[in-house]
Amino acid sequence: NKKAFIFDLDGVIVDTAKYHFLAWQKIAQSLNINFTHEDNELLKGVSRVRSLDIILGLGNVQASQEDKDKWLIQKNEDYLSYLVDMDESEVLPGVLKILKLLKEKNQGIALGSASKNARPILEKTGVLSYFDVIVDGNDVTNAKPDPEVFLKAAQLLHIDPKNSIVFEDSVAGIQAANIAEMVSVGIGEETILHEADHIFKDFTQIETSFINDLISQ
Ligand code: B16
Ligand code: MG
């Protein structure tokens, strides 16, 4: 049995949310907008363009497209500067063990992320070679909860959506997986991700038997 295992990036494989936060905070500060760690939760799984609109909304700031484009470039340049020193140590606990297991079992492995910086992040953290397929922010027009990113990943793996499993840390991502009729596995808090078919606090909580059961279903 070959299944498609589709991984979100930020919050699932690596914790890049902390770097997104630092970069957005600089933009917010320059505009006198109060932007907290709690506000940052609103940006998880959300595209760069939409994230800026959310931050401007927090401060009731109206801006021209020209200014917005400038801030989007600034934000990304700053974000990329935090990624320079990224290495294997930033892969979240338990992830590598599951990737190795899936490879051993000859399963399809894909990335399904909103980020336009996914490839260099996978490369720097040393996990790029595990992925048969990468679908990221450069490949889709509709953001999660639209299922486009996951459907595209399954299609590229030539595996039916019903035989696909999605690992996600965002509510919109879980909804996208559910709409695609894939098995949704939430990584994070049960209170937030309750729409998921299965929920784990992190990858260290996922047993080999859970993966084996998914493969043989
Ligand atoms: P970029 P994911 C998402 O990644 C992040 O959660 C979100 O905070 C970010 O705005 C988005 O990627 C776009 O990232 O600016 O690098 O294109 O969780 O979908 O892997
Ligand atoms: Mg995420």
TrEMBL record:
Domain of life: Bacteria
Reactions that this protein is recorded to catalyse: beta-D-glucose 1-phosphate = beta-D-glucose 6-phosphate
InterPro entries: B-phosphoglucomutase_hydrolase, Beta-PGM, Beta-PGM-like, HAD-like_sf, HAD-SF_hydro_IA, HAD_sf, PGP-like_dom2
The entry's keywords: Carbohydrate metabolism, Isomerase, Magnesium, Metal-binding, Phosphoprotein
EC number: 5.4.2.6
EC main group: isomerase
GO molecular function: beta-phosphoglucomutase activity
Family listed: Belongs to the HAD-like hydrolase superfamily. CbbY/CbbZ/Gph/YieH family.
UniProt-listed NCBIfam families: bPGM (TIGR01990), HAD-SF-IA-v3 (TIGR01509), PGMB-YQAB-SF (TIGR02009)
Protein name: Beta-phosphoglucomutase
Source organism (scientific name): Flavobacterium chungangensis
Gene that this polypeptide is encoded by: pgmB
